[in-house]
Structures are given as structure tokens and as C-alpha cells.
Amino acid sequence: MTTTDQTPNLQLHESKLDSWFSGLIDQLKLDHFMLSSDIAPEDKKSFYHDIINGNYDGLMRNMRETSSMYFISEILKDYVNILKGRSVNPLKLAIGLSNSKILIWAETENDDEKTEDALLLAEAFVNSKYAINGFYINSTIIEKSDNLPIPPHYQTLIS
């Protein structure tokens, strides 16, 4: 396999390429103005401070936090949309978060196979889509008759 076989095919239309770089340069000029005028938001100041001073640990930590927020938000949207699309409503639904894992606590009616299947399908879909990015869902599904409370470290979405 040659090097070109491994690189993504980036056949960008020249005007789109020029437009993107032009926008990037304009944004950098604006950032420079805001930083030199001391009117930049704190997160932007911190970002450039880390880059300028070679604080790559801080830069990577910030990028990891930002990407985690993005992926967790997208995962939850996809998960809930699947449940909506299957017209199911668990009795209780709660989430717990860690760096790469979203814990789901779901309670269903007794013997509600449709809702349980939808919960498992939503988990499988999300895991297949986002595992490549290091994020996944791990579900605990109980029935009403189990009479178990939502664990205290979970945030309730449906109660």
C-alpha cells in the first residue's frame, strides 16, 4: 500500500479551499486583535496562551474536554431519537457520565419487551457509531417489579 492509498481523498473544489483558508486567516486576525486589545474571552486567551507557550498538555486536555462534550451530546441525541422513533417510553431513564462511557439506567414496565428491545437497539446503534471515537453506552435495564431506585450518581432524565 502506498502513502497516497492511506491518506483521505481531499479533492476540494478550489473556491471552497480558498474560501476556507480565507475565513481561517480572517478569524486569526480577529483573534489577534481581541487578544492584543485584551477583550478576548477567557477560554480564547487560555487557548492561545497554551499554544504560544507550548503547553501541549493543557491544550490537549482542553481539546479532550471539548470533544467529550460534543460526542456525549451527539450520543444522547441519537439515543433519544432512536427511542422516539420506536415510540417507546421507559418509566425511568437516567444517565451517569465518565470520561468515555455513558451509563444508562432504564426502568420499564414488567415484561415490556418492545421498550427493552428499543433500549438495547439504541445502545447498539450508538456504540457502533461512536466507539471509533472512544465513547460508548453501557445500559442497565430493570423492570418496575424490581423496585430499585435510580443510583444517586445518575442524573434523571425521565422519572
Question: Care to describe what's here?
Answer:
The chain is an alpha+beta fold. The chain has two domains: 15-64, no CATH class; 73-158, Alpha-Beta Plaits (2-Layer Sandwich), CATH 3.30.70.1770. Helix content is 54%, strand content 16%. The protein contains five helices and four strands, in the order ααααββαββ. A four-stranded mixed beta sheet has the order 3-2-1-4, with helices on one face. Strand 1 and strand 2 (101-108) form a beta hairpin. The radius of gyration is 22 Å and the shape is elongated.
Write a concise keyword list for the protein shown above.
159 residues; alpha+beta; Alpha-Beta Plaits; 2 domains; 4-stranded mixed β-sheet; 54% helix; elongated
